[in-house]
């Protein structure tokens, strides 16, 4: 059971309802995570705006979802692991690619480097080295792409913490965690 109420879009303030309607139009439903975050209109604007902004960035959606499952597994966030596995498949990833990403592995050098960097960010709380950043450039990431990888990690830390701390019920098909932190 969630530690906060899951806001119903039809029984809330106009500002919350408007954002939840946008989310429903994007997903076909309002996932429980957004219903939990809707307890704070400011937090809901922040999280929804971040998803929209990064969705329009230079990183492919598939890579963004692969980063999300790697971070979710490392943080033991069952909600995000389940949600982003579904979203990754919709973005064109195979089941095998999503399973590999969950373990921090890519099926090509560029994806592998991005996932390793993302997990280093999580494990080292952002204290990566210049060599770590340089390696991303060597495999073809621009500075814009590197900053977006950092942004994806940060957004996923936010969503992981929301779901774990607030015990948000998973409303996506379950995926088994690999990491035993």
Note down, in words, how this protein is organized.
The protein is mainly α and 181 residues long. The chain is built from nine helices and no strands. Helix 4 packs across helix 9 and helix 7 packs across helix 9. The longest helix is centred in the C-terminal third of the chain and has 23 residues. It starts with 13 loop residues before the first helix and ends in a 16-residue tail after the last helix.
Q: Beta fraction of the residues?
A: under 5%
Rg over CA atoms, rounded to whole Å, is 16 Å
Helix and strand sequence: HHHHHHHHH
Q: How much helicity do the residues have?
A: 55-70%
The poorly predicted ranges are: none
Query: Based on DSSP secondary structure assignment, what is the total number of beta strands?
Result: 0
CA distance, first residue to last residue: 23 Å
**Shape designation:** globular
Mean pLDDT: 96
Structural category is: mainly alpha
How would you characterize the largest beta sheet? none
**H/I helix tally:** 9
Summarize this structure briefly:
By secondary structure, the chain is an all-alpha fold. It is built from 9 helices and no strands.
């Amino acid at each position: 059971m969630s530690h906060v109420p899951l806001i119903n879009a039809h029984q809330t303030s106009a500002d919350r309802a408007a954002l939840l309607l946008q989310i429903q139009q994007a997903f076909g439903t309002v996932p429980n995570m957004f219903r939990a975050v809707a307890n704070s209109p400011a937090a809901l604007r922040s999280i929804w705006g971040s998803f929209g902004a990064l969705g329009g960035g230079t990183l492919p959606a598939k890579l963004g979802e692969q980063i999300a499952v790697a971070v979710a597994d490392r943080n033991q966030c069952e909600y995000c692991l389940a949600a982003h596995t579904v979203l990754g498949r919709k973005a064109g990833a195979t089941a095998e690619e999503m399973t590999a990403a969950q373990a921090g592995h890519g099926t090509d050098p560029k994806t592998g480097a991005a996932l390793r960097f993302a997990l280093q960010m999580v494990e080292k709380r952002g204290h990566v080295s210049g060599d770590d950043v340089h390696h991303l450039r060597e495999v073809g990431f621009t500075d814009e792409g590197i900053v977006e990888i950092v942004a994806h990690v940060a957004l996923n830390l936010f969503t992981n913490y929301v779901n774990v701390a607030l015990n948000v019920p998973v409303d996506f098909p379950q995926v088994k965690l690999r990491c035993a932190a």
